[in-house]
Amino acid sequence: MSDLYREYMLEHYHNPQNYGVLEGAAVDIHLDNPTCGDKVHITAQMDEDGHLTKVMFEGHGCVVSMAAASMLTEEVIGKSAAEIESMDLENIQEMMGGVKLSMGRIKCAMLALNALKRGLEDSD
């Protein structure tokens, strides 16, 4: 991983975007990775057309999981549930600057996206 992208991830880890909880959110879900102890709580609001208008997260975990959650909250604004459902590891790695994650870090990077997907399914 280049130093530039390492710094970018650390910036999101130390100064996460959209950190907190939305009260009365349409999506409200907790998910954890019991293997490593990462935890994330995602809340989101949607407009009448089913597009995300605001997404926030809170949690704790490694740099990869928390940076990915922060980046994801910015990336998904304006997307529909179907667009988010189609997102995968490739999208997350691209969002993180094209980094190729090791097998041990994939679950960390995917935690927030998996939580958001599950939360959107539960909100139907």
Distance between the termini: 38 Å
Helix content: 40-55%
**Regarding CATH, which class?**
Alpha Beta
Summarize the biggest pleated sheet. Answer: 3 strands, antiparallel
CATH architecture: Alpha-Beta Complex
Cα gyration radius (Å): 13 Å
Structural class: alpha+beta
- How would you state the average pLDDT, rounded? 93
Which residues form runs of ≥5 with pLDDT under 50?
Answer: none
Number of strands: 3
* Run of helices and strands: HEEEHHHH
Fill in the CATH topology: Sufe protein. Chain: A
Overall outline: globular
Secondary structure blueprint with pairings:
Elements: H1 3-14, E1 27-33, E2 38-46, E3 52-60, H2 63-75, H3 81-85, H4 89-95, H5 103-122
Antiparallel strand pairs: 1-2, 2-3
Helix pairs in contact: 1-2, 2-5
